[in-house]
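Components:
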Amino acid sequence: MNDRLSNTQEQIIEGLRQIVPVSVPVHADTNIMRDLHLDSLAVMDFMLTLEDKFDIVISLDRIAEVETLADLVRVVDQLRGRKTNP
Amino acid sequence: MNILSKFAPLRQTYDQLRSVGHNPFQMVFDKMFSPTEGEYQGRRTILLGTNNYLGLTFDSECVDAAVDVLRQQGTGTTGSRIANGSYAAHRQLEADLATYFGRKHSMVFSTGYQANLGMLSTLVGKGDYLLLDSDSHASIYDGARLGHAEVVRFRHNDPDDLAKRLKRLANEPGDKLVVVEGIYSMLGDTAPLKEIAAVKREMGVYLMVDEAHSLGVLGDNGRGLAEAAGVEADVDFVVGTFSKSLGSVGGFCVSDIEGFDVLRVGCRPYMFTASLPPSVMASTVQALRRLQQAPELRTRLMANASRLYNGLKDLGFKVGPEANPIISVLLTDPILAVTFWNRLLEGGVYLNLALPPATPHGVALLRSSVSAAHSFEQIDRVVQLFETIGRQMGVLPALPPMRRNKTANMAAFPTAIPELDRVAAVGAR
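Structure:
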C-alpha cells in the first residue's frame, strides 16, 4: 500500500468514525451501506465531508461505483490524482 | 424467490408500518366534501396533507371552466403534442404563464415531476454539471439521473458551500446549472435565494428555481420565492406545478433564454407522453386568474400557516425553521411517528407521514400542508388533537393537574373533537 493510499484510507476511516460507533469495525472490505448501516442519504452526506477534506468533487455517478471502503479509497485517490496531475 | 425478492428489506419496513394501523401510503378517501374535508372509512376527516394551498380545487369558476371545455373538447388528448398536435388550451395556458411570470417562453408538461425530469435531463448534457441542493425533491434527483451531466450536491441552503463547490469546478469546461427550490417540501424552509443568486452572478452559471410549493404562496403577486427575494432577473429557469396552488395537475417551465423552443423537439419527457386533457388546462388557466385576482387567498393562507406553526411550536413540538404553509413536526423515532400519525387519523385529521431516507437528517416527520380554505376552527382542532396525543405518548410533558382540568373543560366546548375520548382509549392500551 503506497503512502497516499494509506493516508486516504486513514482519513476516510477517521471521517466515518464521526458517524459510525467506534465498536463497529471498519476495514477495506467493509460494505459501507450494509455493514455500517448507513442509508443512501447518509452516504451522500458523508461524501460532502470527504469532498471538503480532500478538496475534490465527487459526482453522484462516482458515488454509485462505491460499495466497499476500498472502492471509496480508489475513487478518492483517482480524483486527488486528477487534481494534482491535470 | 422472484424478481421482486430484492425488495425484501423494503417489504419488511412497509409491513412493519402497516402493522401499526392504517396504511399511510395507500389512503383512500371515499368522498371529498371540500378542499379541507373528506370522508375516510365513514368518518369526516380534516385534510391537512394535500398541498391545496389556495383551496382552488372546488372553486366554482375553475370547476365551470373545466366542465365547459370537457363537454366541448372531450376527455383527453390521447397522445403527445408532437404526434397528436396541440389544443388551443395548451397555447393559451403557455401564453398565460409566460405573461404572468413576465417571461418570453413557457412550456407545459403533463406533471410537475415530468417538468423536472424534462428540464434537468435536457438542459445539461455530457460534460456539463448540475449542482443540486442536498435536500432536493426526488423529481430533481431523478431528472439528474435521466440526463448525462455530472451531478454534484451542495449543503442544504448554504450559498458559501455552493460557491466552494463551483470554485472547485471553475477550470472544468461545460455549462453549470444550479438547482434550488422556493420552499422545500419536507420542512417548509425557503432557500436563501438572494445569496444564491449572488453566487450565480459571481460564478457565471445558470440558475433554476423549482417554485412547486411557493407558486401562489410567496411574493406580492404569488410568483414565488424569486419574486419575494427580488431576484427574478437572476433566475434563468422557473419550474413548477399546477397540482398544488392551482388545484389541478401538470407542470411547467418558463424562461427568457434564447432558443427555448428547441426543447419541444429535444426534451423527451415532454415529447413522449400524453399531453394534459383540455379540461385540466381550462381549470388551470382559470386558477391562474383567480390566483392573480384574489391576493387575499395568500393572506389567509399565511395567517393559517402562522396559527398552526405557532400553535404547535408553543406547545413544545419541534417544528421546521419557518412558518410557511408546509409545517412539519419532527420526531426522532419512525415507529413513534407512525403511531402518532395513526392516532391523528383516528382523531379525524389526515396529514402526511414522511420517513427516512426521504427526509433530511434521518428524522421522521408529521407533515402538514395548510390551505387558505382551512378555518381557524379547523386549525385549532388540529392543534388541540396534537396536544392531546403528544401528552399521551410522552412527546410533550404531562400537564400539572390544574392545567389538565382546564384542558378537560375545553373539551366541553363546541370546538372539541368528538373523537378525543376514543383516542384516549387507544392511547391507554
